[in-house]
Amino acid sequence: SSPFTIIGHPAYPDQKFSFTPHPIKGIAENPPYERTKCYGLDLEQFAANIYKQGRIELSWLIHMYDVLPDKASFFNNFFEKLAGSPTLRKQIEAGVDADEIRESWQADLKEFKTIRRKYLLYPDFE
User: Fold this and answer.
1) Which one of 38, 43, 72, 92 is CB 3.0 to 4.6 Å from 8, fit for a cystine?
2) pLDDT, tens only, 32-41
3) For residues 120 and 19, what is the distance between their CA atoms, to the nearest angstrom?
4) DSSP 3-state of 6
5) Quick check: 38 and 64 in contact, CB under 8 A?
């Protein structure tokens, strides 16, 4: 398994798969839960499909939020920075499912695609 296709936490309830985070020079030099046994999911078999789907797989994030006990510290400020706003965090906390979350992005995506059209060098193949 690649360390880039594993998600987990020491409190993950299903203990069939375990791993111990170790530093990776230049990438994760001080990983959370360093040298602590974690349980979780090995997503390596899904990695190729993520590229084929061309979309973010939200179900694993939603699942981890649902099963981990410490909801108050699940999200940090860096998550909102990556997501661009607190909206995704709030949707997950409210129990909104992945399809509804993706649907909530459609109006903004449509607007973005309209704006970007004038900057494309080649035809847009959607």
Assistant:
1) 38
2) 999 999 999 9
3) 44
4) strand
5) no
DSSP assignment letter at 63: H
Two tokens, residue 2? 């690649």
Q: What is the pTM of this model?
A: 0.83
Which helix H or strand E contains 116, and what residues bound it?
A: helix 98-116
| Calpha distance 45→52 (Å, rounded) | 13
Confidence (pLDDT) at 55: 82
Handedness of CA 15, 5, 65, 103 (dihedral sign): negative
* pLDDT of amino acid 126: 62
Question: Where are the extended beta strands (E) located within 2-125?
Answer: 6-9, 18-19, 38-42
